[in-house]
Design brief:
3 helices; 12 strands; alpha+beta; binds succinic acid; globular; 4-stranded antiparallel beta sheet; 6-stranded antiparallel beta sheet; Jelly Rolls; binds fe (ii) ion; 15% helix
């Protein structure tokens, strides 16, 4: 297996109950992920959404899957179409779906079926402040987060803002899963340091797979 500056020997880092760090778990899907990522961002380009307060986010975003997470002056929500083009979000590629299901199962969450995949791009300096993922109607399902490209420090806190977050260093192809007692844990990403990844250049890409709507709603 190829190892470089940005890939460390696989060793999971300890996480709180309900959460798991799966070191290098996405390596088997790497090639497919990079190919699908190029296809998705060509159809639904990465863009800096604005917060409800009107501030552009430092992270650029797009989506694939039945539902996509968006933020604008009206708030945060999941929508079926890309507001920039009016077209449905690109379909969730099989390889990404399979990776998410396998990672969830590995972390103890069998039966995960994602319907939303948010794609985040961090240029050096971009960050994500501590927040909870609570725009999903289905909070029984876990969250699966795949890291690609430049390393980053993932901040993983407790169920209140007061708990000091763990600092979890993530590298290319690491996966983090959280659900159950950790489903509403506060989390964020420290500013990404300068660098150049051999496969992705000067950026970190994160795929966040979620179940936004309960299965019975999507089946209608
Ligand atoms: C997120 O919380 O949506 C993104 C987390 C990450 O980029 O690792
Ligand atoms: Fe999040």
């Amino acid at each position: 297996m190829e190892r470089d500056l940005f890939t460390r020997a696989a060793a999971p880092l300890p996480m709180p109950a309900g959460a798991a760090h799966l070191a290098g778990f996405a390596l088997a899907w790497e090639e497919a992920l990079l190919k699908e990522l190029a296809r998705i961002t060509a159809a639904a380009p990465l863009r800096h959404m604005v917060t409800p307060g009107g501030q552009p986010m430092s992270v650029a975003m797009t989506n694939c899957g039945a539902l996509g997470w968006v933020s604008d002056r009206r708030g945060y929500r999941y929508v079926e179409r890309d507001p920039e083009s009016g077209a449905p979000w690109p379909a969730l590629p099989d390889a990404i779906r399979e990776l998410a299901i396998a990672a969830a199962r590995h972390a103890g969450y069998a039966g995960f079926e994602p319907d939303a995949c948010l794609i985040n791009r961090y240029a050096p300096g971009a960050r994500m402040s501590l927040h909870q993922d609570r725009d999903e109607q289905d909070q029984a399902a876990p969250i699966v987060s795949v890291s690609l490209g430049l390393p980053a420090v993932f901040l993983f806190g407790g169920l209140t803002r007061r708990e000091r977050p763990l600092r979890v260093p993530l590298v290319h192809c690491d996966v983090v899963v959280w659900g159950g007692p950790a489903r509403l844990a506060y989390h964020g990403v420290a500013p990404v340091a300068d660098g150049h990844h051999p496969k992705l250049g000067p950026q970190r890409i994160n795929l966040t797979l979620r179940r936004a709507r309960p299965p019975n709603i999507n089946a209608r």
